[in-house]
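wait is this the right file?? whatever heres the structure
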């Protein structure tokens, strides 16, 4: 089990901007690795109501369950490694394994027994060091949608914001209000349910 504070800045990109960033940072297709986020919540969206998110991230043969919840600065992440069999069991039943993530979820919501799998978002991701932080280029696919995003993960919020803002300005990329992946996933899911 591990807990850490995540401080990151995000910006949505157009396809043209994404391709321009790949060229600018000399990133080619071989630098991108596939990961799949499998999302969970209760039917009444109890986690979402607490501005929190629960996912299992699948990277090749590795599986990690993460609860993200608000912290004074950034997000508090509680992480737990899973075997492929454990991940499959949770995906099929919605029942969490005993451990730190389940404990954290149960402290947050009273109806953790009602959790179920809502769907998945697949991302092709390239990561590289940039001015003391980690710069991430993402191309994501979900619910017949695809989008592009840049993230900058840092340990110092003030410096990170300045560096990220200067980079966007230098590359002539407009600042866009950017929801996190799970919020974009749920927004799209809601819109499909209403059709």
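ok assuming it is, sequence goes like this
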């Amino acid at each position: 089990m591990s807990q850490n504070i995540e401080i990151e800045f995000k910006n949505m990109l157009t396809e043209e901007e994404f391709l321009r960033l790949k060229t600018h940072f000399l990133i080619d297709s071989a630098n991108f690795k596939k990961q799949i986020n499998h999302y969970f919540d209760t039917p009444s969206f109890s986690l979402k109501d607490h501005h929190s998110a629960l996912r299992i991230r699948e990277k090749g043969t590795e599986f990690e369950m993460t609860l993200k919840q608000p912290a004074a600065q950034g997000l508090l992440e509680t992480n737990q490694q899973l075997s492929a069999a454990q991940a499959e069991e949770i995906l099929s039943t919605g029942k969490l394994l005993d451990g730190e993530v389940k404990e954290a979820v149960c402290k947050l919501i009273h109806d953790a027994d009602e959790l179920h799998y809502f769907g998945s978002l697949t991302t092709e991701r390239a990561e590289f060091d940039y001015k003391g932080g980690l710069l991430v280029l993402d191309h994501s696919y979900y619910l017949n949608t695809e989008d592009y995003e840049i993230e900058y993960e840092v340990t110092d919020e003030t410096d990170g914001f300045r560096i990220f803002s200067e980079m966007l300005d230098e590359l002539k990329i407009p600042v866009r209000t950017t929801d996190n992946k799970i919020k974009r996933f749920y927004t799209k899911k809601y819109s499909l349910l209403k059709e």
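Helices lie at 15-24, 46-49, 84-93, 100-108, 157-170, 181-194. so i think its the right one actually
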